[in-house]
Amino acid sequence: ETVTEPVTEPVPAAEEEEEEEEEEEEDDLAGRFLRLEREQSALLRALPPFGEPVSHVYHPLDYAWEPHCDFVRRYCRTPKRVLFLGMNPGPFGMAQTGVPFGEAWHVREWLRVVGGVKKPPSEHPKRPVLGLTCRRAEVS
Where is this region: Disordered (predicted)? Predict the structure, then answer.
């Protein structure tokens, strides 16, 4: 099991890493799902920025892509009838791990997801991204 300490340099744009990751993605269900997520993330990034009072927006599929991919490749192997409603990543859940509804302890210990989590380019001082080493639990 690998738990990566947070990295302090800014996250490169997702497009720069996209070529390398596309080579790793197969044409299986998980690979198709990950490609679809990348496409949707690009559309979200193209939206105009939020104004006041929003000061920080986290994009965990950019900076927590490694554990997210590990999660998808482990658990998205066969078609499922699932609908996520009201998904709120929360500051101590998906915002830390890149895994939907995934606080760090459960993602690391129960799901056995691994991967490095980088720092987002703009981090709120009260909501630091610690990745899989985060000790706070998401209460939502």
Answer: 1-29
pLDDT in tens, 10-49: 444 444 444 444 445 578 999 999 999 999 999 999 999 9
Q: 3-state DSSP call for residue 105?
A: helix
CA distances from 81 to 2, 26, 128 (A): 31, 22, 34
CATH number at residue 19: 3.40.470.10
pLDDT of 86 reads 57
Task: For residue 128, give its domain range.
Answer: 13-133
| Radius of gyration (C-alpha) of the chain in whole angstroms | 15
Within 8 A by CB and 6+ apart from 78, the residues are 29
Cβ partners under 8 Å of residue 41, min gap 6: 14, 59, 61, 62
Q: Which amino acid is at 6?
A: P
